[in-house]
Amino acid sequence: MQTWLNIDEFATLSGKSKKSIIALCREKKLKCKKTKEGIFVEVEALAKSLVPIQELQIIEKENSIVEKTVSMFLALHEKVLMSKDETIEALKEENKFLKESIYSMQEVYDESKKTIETLQKQLEITQEELEFCRKKYKLMWGRVLKKENGEE
């Protein structure tokens, strides 16, 4: 909210002449407005006119340093937050990938287990057939040998 003072009141409070105040208004060092009732100066400008310019420059430099420091901290904080969010997102993606890999490995394991069971059954059947063929072979050749030897 801006508060305006008549130029006469401003001159009384600041201790400056009307001419110097008007000169400062023309140089845009003070905020002024001209109306039908007269010339008005913003009260904030009164504070600036009362404090010497050298002190104002020091205050502005200190404010500038503080503002730069605060803005630097805010920028660093923002970068840390962004980095944290990126890290969390990367970890989520990695977890998702690992989870999918585990599910895939489980499926491969289950398929391998079924394949092993099938192969074991086939091996048992083949071993039974082989044993049957061996017995049959022994019987056949046993009879042939007995016939040759004249044993029957």
Précis, in short:
The protein is mainly α.
Structure description:
80% of the residues lie in helices and 8% in strands. The protein has four helices and three strands. The chain folds into two domains: 47 residues; 95 residues. The mean pLDDT is 82. It has a three-stranded antiparallel sheet. The N and C termini lie far apart (132 Å). The protein is mainly alpha-helical and 152 residues long. A hairpin with a 2-residue loop joins strand 2 and strand 3.
Shape type: rod-shaped
* Quaternary form: single chain
Q: How much strand content do the residues show?
A: 5-15%
- The whole-angstrom Rg is 50 Å
Give the fraction of residues assigned to helices: over 70%
Number of strands: 3
How many domains? The number is: 2
Q: Mean pLDDT, nearest integer? A: 82
Main sheet specs: 3 strands, antiparallel
Number of helices: 4
Low-pLDDT regions:
none
Following the backbone from N to C, one meets helices and strands in this order, namely EHHEEHH
Write the layout of secondary structure elements.
Layout: E1 4-6, H1 7-14, H2 18-26, E2 32-35, E3 38-42, H3 43-50, H4 53-149
Antiparallel strand pairs: 1-3, 2-3
Structure keywords:
mainly alpha; about 150 residues; 3 strands; about 10% strand; 4 helices; 2 domains
